[in-house]
Amino acid sequence: MTSAYPSISGQFLINGEWIAGKRVTAVTNPAILTEVVGEVALCSKQDVGQAIDAAQAAFPGWAGTSAEKRAALIKEASSQLAAIIEESVPLFVRENGKVLVEAKKDLLRCVEIMSKGADALVAWWKTESIPGGQMVQIRRRPRGVTAVISPWNSPMILTFKRVIPAILAGNTVVVKPATDCPLTVLSSLRVVAAHLPPGVINIVTGSGALVGEQICSDPRVRAIAFTGSTETGKRIMGMSAGTVKKLYMELGGNDPALILPDAILDEAAIERIRMGILRAAGQVCSAIKRVYVHESRYEEFMTKLKREFQRMIVGNGMQPDAMMGPINNKAQYDFVTGLIERTREAGAHVQTLGNKLEKETWENGYFLLPSIVTGVSQASELVRAEQFGPVIPVIPYSDQEEVIAMANDTEFGLRASIWTANQQLAEALADRLDAGAVFFNNHTIFQDLHLDFPGLKESGLSRETAWCGIDLFADTYGFAN
Ligand code: NAD
């Protein structure tokens, strides 16, 4: 463990008390497989039951706390979290594999989620009156015990983005972070929880199949905010049906990038495309996962993308020279390497590019150099599956209708990007793409925290376009005479 966080290793939080897990498993550094970063508790059924008991007991008091007070407590906690960011970054890099710059950005975003959410709450919470003859008010109230289940790839943002709006809205939470990367979530939520009454935030850890399923099937849990794979999301939807829980689902993606005949392919654009593909070694729900290039620009695009991939330096994220870190865990590493192998065996051309930062220690981490794959069809497993790694298929196309059909030919609908000099054309095509958000000459995230547009089709449920997501976590009800 890093010295800054000796107390969260192997522990979980119930009703304000940190409890040492009777059973634990190691969290290892994906860049140095022999390094144990800390331990994560494998909670029992009883632990999970007690966490839900605590959240249930704390709910009336927290729901009855004024919006102003809730906002003030979160604001205070955000200042304290901001003060320890520099200490938190190394822990996050060591358990996740992200490079330093990306890890720090994620942590800063968590502070912003808290501070902007707190600012947004009070204005949003106000009762609205509907004009007309009858007195009708729209009032807000929280839902109750809310489960937040998050994945390993960007666990900080994806946990904070749900926990903070949920508690700001007056709910209490039971959080289940991913076993492969839980420590920075635990250490940072410890700071937040210390500012709140006991039981408002409870955290249990352990396997999704045991701990996750028990949380999702408990009738006292009234809402579930889940971020993870579509497969797990579907299981959770099934488990929630019995007690009609409210669901917020951010699921898998297979984002296409469409390079049109008039695309501007200057250095800056190619760098943005590379970032869209390789940020966090491709382990991003809304990474570019397929590129369709008009045949008239195909050769030029390939030359430029290869040159850009060749610049990549892959290594331990703790080294400032590393541009891309390792894959986070063995299961994902095996999946990506297997997928590349199967694609090669099926006759595709796989070009592996980039540089190893440290050749001597390469085999001691889940490192992969980035690859560009050509000679694949729309039916290829690499095009249809969510690779979640640094490998990208590039497919030429000849006409606009064909590329729209190929882009939409997937069960996913998270994001997409259109690369062209013609904004009007991009807007017209965006209307026809199955995506929760379409980027123009970019493939990134929304800068403004008020804005987010989760996936369509099997990429998600619920829309969040204002108020830092707080509106997702409260019910409105009518009061009338
Ligand atoms: P995952 O679905 O395997 O696990 C996510 C979380 O769910 C983990 O905490 C896990 O322990 C838990 N879980 C697993 N099985 C469960 C079950 N049966 N019941 C309850 N909980 C269970 O996903 P992952 O591999 O951790 O993350 C990668 C996936 O997440 C990718 O598909 C990626 O696209 C998706 N993702 C989506 C978004 C988004 O915003 N749309 C963001 C990040 C990641």
Description:
The chain has 481 residues and is an alpha/beta fold. The protein has 2 domains: 11-251 and 456-480, Aldehyde Dehydrogenase, Chain A, domain 1 (3-Layer(aba) Sandwich); 255-440, Aldehyde Dehydrogenase, Chain A, domain 2 (3-Layer(aba) Sandwich). Helix content is 38%, strand content 22%. It has 14 helices and 22 strands. The protein has helices at 45-63, 67-83, 85-96, 100-125, 155-168, 183-193, 208-217, 230-240, 267-278, 298-310, 330-345, 381-384, 400-408, 423-430; strands spanning 11-14, 17-20, 24-29, 32-41, 128-130, 136-142, 145-149, 172-176, 201-203, 221-227, 246-250, 255-259, 288-294, 313-314, 349-352, 355-356, 371-374, 391-397, 415-419, 437-440, 460-461, 474-480. The strands form 6 sheets. The chain has a 7-stranded mixed β-sheet, sandwiched between helices. Strands 9-8-7-10-11-21 form a 6-stranded mixed β-sheet, sandwiched between helices. β10 (221-227), α8 (230-240) and β11 form a beta-alpha-beta unit. α2 (67-83) runs antiparallel to α4 (100-125) and α3 (85-96) crosses α4. The longest helix is centred in the first third of the chain and has 26 residues, at 100-125. It is globular, with a radius of gyration of 23 Å. The chain starts with 10 loop residues before the first strand and ends with a strand. The mean pLDDT is 96. It binds nicotinamide-adenine-dinucleotide (NAD). Residues 149-154, 158, 176, 178, 208-209, 212-213, 216, 227-229, 232, 235-236, 250-253, 285, 386, 388, 414, 455, 460 line the site of nicotinamide-adenine-dinucleotide.
